[in-house]
Amino acid sequence: QVQLVESGGGLVQNGGSLRLSCAASGSILRVYAMGWYRQAPGKQRELVATITSEGSTNYADSVKGRFTISRDSAKNTVYLLMNSLNSEDTAVYYCKAEITSRTTPLFILAYWGQGTQVTVSS
Questions:
Q1: Both ends of the chain: CA-CA distance in Å?
Q2: Is 87 strand, coil or helix?
Q3: pLDDT cut 70: percent of the chain above it
Q4: Beta carbons within 8 Å of 78's beta carbon, 6+ residues apart
Q5: Distance CA 76, CA 34 (A)
Q6: Which residues contact 91 (CB under 8 A, 6 or more apart)?
Q7: Burial class (CB in 10 A: 0-12, 13-18, 19+), 102
Q8: For 28-45, how does the pLDDT look when each residue is reduced to its tens digit (9 = 90+)?
Q9: Which H or E run includes 33?
Q10: Res. 19 pLDDT band, cuts 50 70 90
Q11: 17 touches 86 (CB < 8 A)
């Protein structure tokens, strides 16, 4: 069984910063790509940033230059540093990881965290 647990969300003022963390645990064999997605009220879930196991990153245009994704592969943890936050960044942020586990060693499955709320006040 694999679990992803996010932390670091909260309420921040316009222009402020937050750092999200997501740790994967359980019967993990290998963690491949990891990423962050977000869903604002009334909107579809959208990609924020991803990072491969080799460290290559990809960002949504709306967060380029403001957000930085990183990972600690030894800890199976991914981070999202968010700077210059504005009201458009208010959403529930979800972590996703592509993982092979001891119960499914031949398949790379996508796992999601429970989400963490980020609210930017003006």
A1: 41
A2: helix
A3: 100
A4: 21, 22, 34, 35, 36, 51, 69, 70, 71, 95, 97
A5: 9
A6: 38, 39, 40, 43, 117, 118
A7: exposed
A8: 999 999 999 999 999 999
A9: strand 28-39
A10: very high
A11: no
Count of positions (residues) in the chain = 122
pLDDT value of position 88: 96
Give the residue carrying structure tokens 């869903």.
39
Alpha-carbon gap, residue 14 to 52, rounded angstroms = 30
- The closest alpha carbon to 78, from 117, 112, 101, 51, belongs to 51
* DSSP 8-state secondary structure symbol assigned to residue 73: G
Pick left, alpha or beta for residue 74 (phi over 0 → left; psi -120 to 50 → alpha; otherwise beta). Answer: alpha
Three-state secondary structure of 2-25: EEEEEECCEEEECCCCEEEEEEEE
pLDDT of the residue at 122: 85
Residue-wise burial string across 33-71, b where 16 or more C-beta atoms lie within 10 A, e elsewhere: bbbbbbeeeeeeeeebbbbeeeeeeebeeebeeebbbeb
